[in-house]
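Hi there,

I know you've been waiting on this one. I reran it after we fixed the sequence typo, so this is the corrected version. Both the input and the resulting structure follow.
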Amino acid sequence: MQPPAYKVAAAHVAPVFLDRDATVDKACALIREAARNGAQLIVFPETYIPAFPLWCALQAPIENHALFCQLAAGSLRVDGPEIGKVADAARRSGIFVSLGFNEVSAVSAGCLWNANLLLSDRGDILCHHRKLVPTFYEKLVWAPGDGSGLQACETRLGRVGMLICGENTNPLARFALLAQGEQVHLSTYPPMWPTRDPATGVNYDLKQAIRIRAGAHSFEGKVFNVVTSGFLDAAARDRLGQLTPEAGRILDGSPRGISVVMGPEGTPISPILQDEEGILYAEIDLSQTVAPKQIHDVVGGYNRFDIFKLSVDRSRRPPLNYEAGDLRLESTDAEPNDEDRS
């Protein structure tokens, strides 16, 4: 069967900062726009709904309780009406959707995950991934995820896998997707990621980091890579810039994230969006992923499976398991694993 060719969309966009319902409405409008422009897949940034917690880089944790509470109040349940609304927009528009959001636990109003859903063009949830390890100051906000979402989903668009931000630096997580036949990789990032005062001259260069990670995964796996970063709009910048006397200067001096589509040779096949908000489009053709594997196929002939072995635990980690009788914890925190589904 001929591998598919189609248009993808990277939504290099800002949320309506910490406004869950308005951001859901904006996401649905963008889904419809991308579909009207012929895209078969749209990818939203890391924790698009309701925002990425940039405040953790700008002031001490003891000052951030109110912002955390606001973030928690705007976070989503996978079985909630907001996800249902996005799924309905995907179904009505006939487009696949990758949605980054803050997820709140069903059993703890203060336990959040950095989560991502892959929705089919019928509105079905194909993959629910929680970021394995929050990075640096992100640990102040999100709990660690698990391996349940390390899946390359079989779709009419090919086998699609996704990782969030720093997970794209984890070679084992990346290999776990490639070894399932991944053909299209989705990478999501925040609008920026300050690590030092820009005055030091050694702040984290998010653009360069993204290009290295995305290019490496595409080249090593011979896959297409749809990279989507968030956008910091004026409203969010002004609100965050008022947190401390130095916050605005730090925001203005920190490198922005980029959105780009990488081809299977590890090079961009689209323009790069960084300093303006919008939807980035690119045409991909999965037939182009075949010939490069003659040279290096890390999940095929260019590996030594008699030497290297990787095992992955894809079970959920619920807070409570009943061991007697027929009682089970009924919670969306504990989804069925692969064995339960079969």
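Quick highlight: Residues 338-342 have pLDDT under 50 and may be disordered.

Best,
R. S.
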